[in-house]
Design a protein that fits this description.
The structure is a single chain. The protein contains 6 helices and 3 strands, in the order H-H-E-H-H-E-E-H-H. The chain is mainly alpha-helical. The protein has a domain of 78 residues: Arc Repressor Mutant, subunit A (Orthogonal Bundle). The protein has a 3-stranded antiparallel β-sheet. It is globular. This is MarR family transcriptional regulator.
Length: 176
């Protein structure tokens, strides 16, 4: 079989090319898929242990963390925190409310807003799950140092923002 020309590069930004090649960038993309698939399986397993889907588990935990100091969180804040749509969060929180894990109350100061809080049942469930979460998360994220953790969080936040822009560009290019 005759040799083929190299595959076209998938990026052109000099910062993403090492020695004129996109091989390291492609390795990053493929490693990201591998990590995210495994992390999704971890999340699904946590949810399954407490009778929830992975996304229901994530929403429940996020409400718990955002309200832990005795405060409250509204749907739009939760959606922004999780980088999800308000409609999706509304649907998911309705399922959690039906399961008796959260309360959804009208904000007395702004009746358009819905305040979310965990029920005692949810707090108890999460407390029971915590030792397992700690063991699994400690292993999954063992490679990160204290200095790397804030940097990787900032990096992911920036990648989420740039991914939104990339999706908009894709939509535009599809139409033109």
């Amino acid at each position: 079989m005759p040799p083929r020309a190299p595959a076209p590069m998938t990026v052109t930004r000099p910062e993403l090319l090492i020695d004129g090649s996109d091989a390291v960038f492609r390795k990053l993309i493929h490693a990201s898929f591998g990590f995210l698939a495994r992390h999704e399986a971890v999340r699904a397993s946590f949810g399954q242990r407490i009778g929830l889907s992975g996304v229901e588990y994530t929403v429940l935990v996020a409400i718990g963390h955002l309200t832990a100091g005795g405060g409250t969180v509204i749907i739009s804040q939760l959606a922004a925190h999780l980088h999800l749509s308000g409609a999706f969060v509304t649907t998911t929180t309705s399922r959690l409310a039906k399961k008796g894990l959260i309360t959804k109350d009208v904000d007395p100061e702004d009746r358009r807003k819905i305040c979310l809080n965990l029920t005692e049942q949810a707090w108890s469930t999460l407390a029971d799950l915590a030792p397992i979460q700690q063991q699994v998360n400690d292993i999954e994220f063992a490679p990160l140092s204290a200095g790397e953790l804030p940097r990787i969080v900032a990096l992911f936040e920036n990648l989420i923002d740039s991914s939104e822009k990339a999706l908009k560009l894709q939509e535009f290019l599809k139409e033109h």
